[in-house]
Amino acid sequence: MTVPPHARGYEGFTGRIGRTTDDSTPSWAPVPSAAPGSPNVVVVLIDDMGYSDIGPFGSEIDTPNLDRLAASGVRLTNYHTTPLCSPSRAALLTGLNPHRAGYGFVANADPGYPGLRLELADDVLTLPEILRAGGYATYAVGKWHLVRDANIRPGANRDSWPTQRGFDRYYGSLEGLNSFYYPNQLVSDNSAVDVDEYPENYYLTDDLTDKAIGYLKDLRAHDADRPFFLYFAHVAMHGPLQAKPADVAKYRGRYAEGWDALRESRFAAQLAQGLFPPGTEQAPRNSETGFDVPEWDSLMPEQQRRFARYMEVYAGMVDSVDQSVGRILDTIEELGELDNTIVVFTSDNGGTAEGGPEGTRSYFSQFAHVTDPDWVGDVPHDEELIGTARLGVHYPRGWGQASNTPFRFYKGQSFAGGVRVPFVLSWPDGLRKQDGDNGIREQFTYVTDLAPTLLGLVGIDPPTVRGGLPAKEFDGVDASAVLRDGAIASSHTEQYTEMTGNRGYYRDGWKLLALHPGPDVDAPRWQLFDVRTDPTELHDLADRFPEKVDELAAAWDEAAWANTVFPLLSGGALAVRRPAEQALSRPVRILAGTPPLERYRCSKLIAFRDFEIATELGGSGFAPGNEGVLVAHGDPQGGYLLYIEDGHLVFGLNSYGRYASVDAGPVPVGARRIEVSATVAPRLRWDFTVRIDGAPTGELLGQVQLVGMAPWTGISVGVDARGPVSWDLRERRGPFRYTGALRAVTYTPGPVQVPGGAIERIEREAEYAAD
User: Fold this and answer.
1) What are phi and psi of 716, to 5 degrees?
2) What angle do CA 164, 167, 169 make, to 5 degrees?
3) Running DSSP on this structure, what letter comes out for residue 539?
4) 486 FRET partner, CA 20 to 30 A, in 54, 425, 469, 761?
5) Residue 640 region, left (φ>0) first, then alpha (ψ -120 to 50), else beta?
6) Rounded Cα distance, 709 and 769, in Å
7) Could you tell me which residues belong to the region Disordered (predicted)?
8) In the chain, helix, strand, coil percent, each to 5?
């Protein structure tokens, strides 16, 4: 056809443009499309679950669905991750060492250095971005924790939110932890879910599983061919520990013999399964101060009974996770795609010591009363409430060491108990085991290897640019050859690790390690282990091989500079926040009907300071019959609320699960302004005064301040939304929405009144616990 002289093209358009479609040729931009037969990918990541907590790694807990995956797939028995959550998630999703990805710590601080950006940089590619560009549908549910908590609120930067980082859909918690019965805030795609009250029998793991299944069914109803990537990052097993009654009931009485017997039985099962070579020694109970675990038989019968209850709840939660995995597998099988689906199951770090030596009824108080052990009074509590919505418990650290069988130490440390975790991968169509292959892989692998390995299995090469910038190249290696053949040596031969001064370096079977319990973060006392013959890191060879210590210490130093590890966090650096956050402490007027505010934003209005709360009643002021909550901030784990019931004004404070209130008397007809003043008192207390139209009507004195991670649920006006501050009031009146005219509530923060050293200690512990 002759091109008309008046025809012109448009830049970038590959067809032909005439004056009408009769003399034009259409063209369509190519749509990313995966190769025919590409496998689906499912990555299930668990939080704070140790090496031995599932059946394929020695556990007595019922995990039939994980047993099924292990039987059809491979187990990486020498897989390592970082000691904390955000760094592990960043490394898993980017293939980069955590500091290069910007996550040298958890996303609850902001020290202001390159390795501690705690946001993904513009030149960092993520696994979902790469897979989506390769034609995959991408979904994420559960815990994200790659957004600085200052950026979770509306109006803040969303560059590190899931849907900005390659996921088509997201549903879950951007926080590092959450309640399983009353999540403080859930996010769907780019917005907080506006919910006042969760339905009866709500449980977070079930909610996340329902959403994940819904995404997969929705995709297949619209597209029969497009492969999917599902990243299911469980909030379990992070504290507070809460489990459904039916799941706990399965394990009643199962842990009466204690953690010493449990460690022995699990280690025997691990040896029988071939997870360790004959002659491997189990680590003795941790004895170092702050990590130590008592002999079970030395405990009083009351302690043994109560401590066992914690582990029953923990086991019920693991069981619930396995049920969730089963529901996902059943859905994919119903779609006819299970054999061509790569399924990965692993944990972000080892079991934790955060419950202290005796466990805690209040997870948040455990990290808030570091300046005064008797501050809250975390005394024995009603055992029947352990694991329920009414308490936010965590187990004693003896169970954490049992979780990490057969290793030493816990989450947060660079020893194996903190960084060596279970790993199961199944792909029946693509990884068929040869006769005699037990599926056990003993080669060293690291969390950064997962992204390049999955891309190698599905046959997609990562782009070299992101948004016009040269993309950072992977630090991890493709371990798919190891998955296929257990005789092939690992190509990941050396690896540094560092977290809050805990550090290590692995090279060719040698492992150099150092704890950081002392005052100088840059004065490591190195220990050296040959983990080929001593996988449980018991026999320190540093004195025998000083030249090897010097070699690996120099290698650690070189890797630290290359990976932006420096400067090491010392003193109060973890509590540092960028100056712009001071704006969050300005007075704010919250109109009635505003959705519940985000947690961190709310904390800046009250933490460590005096503050004033003023409620404005509209219309003609208070009228007989008006009742309900005027303002509420928090939930069963800690908070306060102001409400009117039967004509009386009541102010209540929940101090980490201990509730106190004051009846501030009848509210006069026509009252227009109701106020609460909080004044800082000695020993981290508040004195509260309640006023009606300027006249004092009640006091609540000497109350424990809510700091650290509490209050967990944000401020709501005119209703006690989500988790109840007062359990009794919720049972009687539900969320108790105010029935009269309520215009607004104004918060006026005063100056910080608590000494800076105490604030740094509390916030450091709270940030660490938030992981």
Assistant:
1) -125, 145
2) 105
3) S
4) 54
5) beta
6) 9
7) 1-35
8) 30, 20, 50
Tens-place pLDDT, residues 612-664: 999 999 999 999 999 999 999 999 999 999 999 999 999 999 999 889 999 99
633 is catalytic: no
509 Cβ contact partners less than 8 Å away, ≥ 6 residues apart? 444, 530, 531, 532
Render the burial of 167-182: b for 16+ CB within 10 Å, e for the rest.
bbbbbbbbbbbbbbbb
Between helices 85-94 and 450-458, what is the axis angle to 10°?
Answer: 30
What are the two backbone dihedrals, phi and then psi, of residue 74, each rounded to the nearest 5 degrees? -125, 155
* Cis amide leading into 294 (omega within 30): no
Catalytic residue among 85, 492, 516, 602: 85
- Cβ neighbours of residue 737 closer than 8 Å, sequence gap 6 or more: 196, 628, 629, 718, 719
Q: Is-contact 470 464, C-beta < 8 A? A: yes
CB hemisphere CA count around 597 (13 angstroms): 26
Q: Where are the alpha helices (DSSP H) in 335-476?
A: 363-368, 397-403, 416-419, 450-458
Looking at residue 562, its amino acid is A
**Predicted structure pTM score:** 0.96
| Strand boundaries in 549-636, DSSP class E | 588-591, 609-617, 628-635
Contact status, residue 650 vs residue 661, Cβ threshold 8 Å: yes
305 has pLDDT over 80: yes
Tell me which residue of 254, 99, 248, 176 sits closest to 566, measured CA to CA: 99
600/451 Cα distance (integer angstroms)? 32
Residues in the chain: 771
Assess whether pLDDT exceeds 90 at residue 103. Answer: yes
Q: What is the DSSP letter of 737?
A: B
745 to 195, 349, 520, 613, 748: CA distances (angstroms)? 20, 42, 46, 7, 10
Q: Which amino acid is at 619?
A: G
Three-state DSSP class for 296? helix
One-letter amino acid at 236 equals A
Q: Among this protein's residues, is 369 annotated catalytic?
A: no
> What digits encode the pLDDT tens for the residues 683-734?
889 999 999 999 999 999 999 999 889 999 999 999 999 999 999 999 999 9
Q: Are 63 and 56 in contact (CB under 8 A)?
A: yes
Q: What is the DSSP annotation of 45-70?
A: EESS--TTSSGGGT--S--HHHHHHH
Type of residue at 632 = A
Picking from 277, 285, 600, 311, the residue whose alpha carbon sits closest to that of residue 442 is: 277
At 202-245, the pLDDT tens digits run 999 999 999 999 999 999 999 999 999 999 999 999 999 999 99
Judge whether 354 and 470 are in contact, CB under 8 Å. Answer: no
60: which 2 tokens? 């007595």
Q: What is the pairing mode between strands 40-46 and 74-76?
A: unpaired
Q: Which residue has the tokens 């040869």?
A: 434
Region class of 114: left (phi > 0), else alpha (psi between -120 and 50), else beta: alpha
Residues 429, 340 contacting (CB under 8 angstroms): yes
Dihedral angle computed from the Cα positions of residues 707, 712, 717 and 721, in that order, rounded to the nearest 10 degrees: -150
Which two structure tokens, joined as six digits, stand for 158? 């969303």
Select which of 80, 145, 238, 516 is catalytic.
145
Joined together, the tokens standing for residue 539 give 């026999």
HSE at residue 629, side-chain half, CA atoms within 13 A, is 27
Contact 338, 428 (CB under 8 A): yes
In order, the DSSP letters of 368-396 are H-TT-TTSS------GGGTTSTT-BBB--
* Interatomic CA distance for residues 442 and 431, integer angstroms: 17
